[in-house]
Amino acid sequence: MIAHALAVLFVVASETEACGSSTWCGGAIVPGSIKRGVESHVAIRDVITGARRDVRYPGELPDTLCDGVALYAEGLTIGDTFVALRVWPINLGKYDACFAWRCIADERRPPECREVPFR
Questions:
Q1: Which residue, 6, 41, 76, 90, could crosslink 35 as a Cys pair with Cβ 3.0–4.6 Å?
Q2: Can you give the CATH number for the domain in which 48 is found?
Q3: How many whole angstroms separate alpha carbon 89 and alpha carbon 73?
Q4: Is 111 contained in some domain?
Q5: For residue 105, is it within any domain?
Q6: Which pLDDT score, from 0 to 100, does residue 110 have?
């Protein structure tokens, strides 16, 4: 019952706010939108509404974030940009033991996760 209530809350919040003035934001990373540096930028697409949202992160993005991965961020909205204070990659599909290694170069991955294509 609690898990169902949380799922409904997540869907309702996404549909009504679409990363608007909320303290969280999530969606699939738009391919080619990651800009890494002292202040990183990435664009995400809300998986429910399809709305595109620019996310700014004051620091280097984790190397576990890359094109095709979903992003969850906590922060606040300033103007048209969501300023993230924390970011995490999310696996929206089935369990995958190698998910966290998808964005890491093959030579840095554990042997069982090398040459595993992104699903």
A1: 41
A2: 2.40.50.140
A3: 9
A4: no
A5: no
A6: 83
Across 70-118, the runs of DSSP E, i.e. the strands, are 70-78, 81-90
Identify residue 53 by its one-letter amino acid code: R
117 in any annotated domain: no
Question: Which of 84, 46, 89, 95 lies closest to 64, judged by CA?
Answer: 89
- Boundaries of domain holding 19: 2-92
Q: Comparing C-alpha atoms, which of 47, 50, 62 is closest to residue 92?
A: 47
To which residue do tokens 């990659």 refer? 89
69-83 burial, b if ≥16 CB within 10 A, otherwise e? bbbebebebeeeebb
> How many whole angstroms separate alpha carbon 100 and alpha carbon 103?
7
What is the rounded end-to-end Cα distance, in angstroms, of the chain?
Answer: 31
Number of independent structural domains in the chain:
1
Does residue 67 fall inside a structural domain? yes
pLDDT in tens, 19-62: 655 688 888 899 999 999 888 999 998 777 888 999 999 988 88
